[in-house]
Amino acid sequence: MRSGDRMTHHPDTGLPQRVALGVLLRSFPPAHVDLVLDAADRREQRQRLLPARLMVYFTLGMWIFKALSYEQILGEILSNAPGLALPGAVDEPASAAAIGRARRRLGVEPLRLLFEQAAGTFPLPAPASFRGLRPLWLRRVEVGVPATPANLAGFGGSARTRMSVLIEDFTGRVISADVADASDLPERVFSGVALDDSMLIMDERPLSARLWTAVERLGVEQLWPLEERQKPASAGRLPDGSTLAKLTADDGSELVARVFARPGGSPARLATSILDHRLAPAAELAALYDARPAGADFDAIAARRVGDVLELRSKDPEMVRQELYAMLCVHHAIGDLVNSVPPHLSQ
Question: Do β-strands 305-306 and 134-144 pair in parallel, antiparallel, or remain unpaired?
Answer without folding.
Answer: unpaired
